[in-house]
Amino acid sequence: MSHLLIGVAHVIFAPMNQLRSTARRPVDNLPLVKRQILFHASKHEYGLCLDNNSHKDVFAGESCEFLAGIGCAEVFEALPGRSFDTLKKYLGQHADWLFGGLSYDLKAETENLPSLLPDAVGFPVMSFFRPETVVLLQDNQMIVHSLTSNPESVCDDILSTQTDFSPGTIPPPVLKPRMPRTVYLDTVRSVIAHIQEGDLYEMNLCQEFYSENATINPIRVYCTLNEIAQPPMAAFFRFNNNYLLCASPERFLRLRGDRLLSQPIKGTRRHTGSHDESLRNELADSIKDRAENVMIVDLVRNDLARSCRPGSVRVEELFGIYTFRTVHQMISSVSGLILPQTSPVDAIERAFPPGSMTGAPKVMAMSLIEKYEMNRRGLYSGAVGYFDPAGNFDFNVVIRSLLYNADTGYLSAQVGGAIVYDSVPESEYEECLVKAEALFKALASS
Predict the structure, then answer these.
(1) How far apart are CA 332 and CA 320, in angstroms?
(2) pLDDT one-digit tens code per residue, 85-137
(3) How far is CA 428 from the centre of its chain?
(4) Model pLDDT for residues 195-248, shown as the tens digit of each residue
(5) Which 3 state secondary structure label does DSSP give 435?
(6) 163 pairs with which residues across the strands?
(7) Does residue 320 sit in helix, strand or coil?
(8) pLDDT digits (tens, 9 = 90+) for 138-190
(9) Secondary structure element (H or E) that encloses residue 176, with its range
(10) Distance CA 24, CA 356 (A)
């Protein structure tokens, strides 16, 4: 079976809000201009840069290479307990771009499952902002849409941005496990016992590696991480003094026109280089990984069916094997046609949190996650992305990420994997380390 390259269609092409003015510049050196936009964004208290790292996605259609929301015209503030309703109302009043993130802990609203676990990172449950400037890279052009400034001046500022780092003088932080290895192994055994007793079929169990009082240069660490991993749904997100440095390969949900698309991942192998075809084949033939993947595909189909026309939900690809810089992944693609009366926010709420990060059945899995994990997930296992002026959206799944609170110095890296009936605890732990490898390398090299 042949497999097509996956990528991110972060940008869909919708009419711009008439309040924004536009400028265009040719781009000869794409990597340099990307870096200049990143550095320019990092200087603002609010900014989100989305990068597909030149991956192309045959299931998502037309896309651009890079999208950024920079500066803050307005911060979105959700009402406690009514976050999705507040977001829906806000988008109805502002036909404009909105960038930001959705915390996994919104499960307290979608399924009435609040968390009592500690949260040391501190991202809001919804962290959205309406940007002063939107920047796109597509077709060898930089396109700037500005709400408050002369877009030609913004272009000049970006293209004159220096991208050199000063020499690092502070030792990189060392991440330590929140959950000791022996405790993790025992926890996997407990989850397997729940599966054997019929409580659930699959559960995504995560663990945290963290450092306190850490000092890092977020943009430097992100650039290193993105160079190591080069994933299709990378994100650099600054929300005041909270940072997300994200090397995600996974799409949560995308709406373009009337078509919803989700691309859950279940199944991972290390990518060691050009001569590891055996590992790729091992993943493709793995009965365990296929079982994990198909369970989540069924869950995603059910989630999408809540918002889609009857009979329109279909599996575009099952068990696709995709190779990135550090890992091979098993990815499936599920789509459906959204009901005319369903709002974009309703579609997200009905599918949230991402099924690949919960388990099946979803509510029982999330209940047991609360029982067995040691810290709140926060933005990890949630999603970051954007809404455009036409109401289309694209959100990734926040995995393979570092979360950093610059005020407190708290640094967090969470990783996890699906536990099923025939999981081997030691193998599950090793898979966590494979997923965290790029994060550890980025910190050590920055």
Answers:
(1) 6
(2) 999 999 999 999 999 999 999 999 999 999 999 999 999 999 999 999 999 99
(3) 22
(4) 999 999 999 999 999 999 999 999 999 999 999 999 999 999 999 999 999 999
(5) helix
(6) none
(7) strand
(8) 999 999 999 989 999 999 999 999 999 877 778 899 999 999 999 999 999 99
(9) strand 176-177
(10) 39
The closest of 391, 46, 398, 436 to 233, measured between CA atoms, is 398
- What are the Cα distances from residue 116, in Å, to 347, 370, 376, 377? 27, 8, 8, 11
Q: How many CB atoms neighbour CB 163 within 10 A? A: 16
Token readout for 413 is 């890296």
* Structural contact between residues 151 and 124, judged by C-beta atoms closer than 8 angstroms: no
Strands (E), 271-338: 314-323, 327-337
Give the contacts of 92 (CB within 8 A, at least 6 positions apart): none
Residue whose tokens read 């850490």: 214
Question: Encoding tokens for residue 236?
Answer: 């650099």
CA-to-CA dists, residue 125 to 82, 136, 224, 255, 391, angstroms: 11, 27, 28, 22, 21
pLDDT tens profile 298-337: 999 999 999 999 999 999 999 999 999 999 999 999 999 9
- Domains, the chain: 21-165+173-445 (3.60.120.10)
Place of tokens 């390969």: 249
- 421: phi then psi, degrees, rounded to nearest 5: -55, -45
Q: Structure pTM? A: 0.94
Active site residues per annotation: 250, 266
Cβ distance 64 to 137 under 8 Å?
A: yes
Work out the number of other CB atoms within 10 angstroms of the CB of residue 355.
29
Which pairs with CB-CB distance under 8 Å and at least 24 residues apart come from 179-186?
Answer: 179/207, 179/208, 179/373, 179/374, 181/429, 184/425, 184/429, 184/432, 185/425, 185/426, 185/429
Q: Is 3 within 8 Å of 280 (Cβ atoms)?
A: no
Of 417, 419, 377, 418, which is closest to residue 398 (Cα–Cα)? 377
Pair of tokens at residue 394: 């694209």
Q: What is the DSSP letter of 106?
A: G
CB 385 within 8 A of CB 396: yes
Read off the pLDDT of residues 70-85 as tens digits, 9 standing for 90 and up: 999 999 999 889 999 9
What are the residues whose beta carbons fall under 8 Å from the beta carbon of 22, sequence distance 6 or more? 16, 143, 144, 145, 146, 151
Pairing of strands 141-146, 21-26: antiparallel
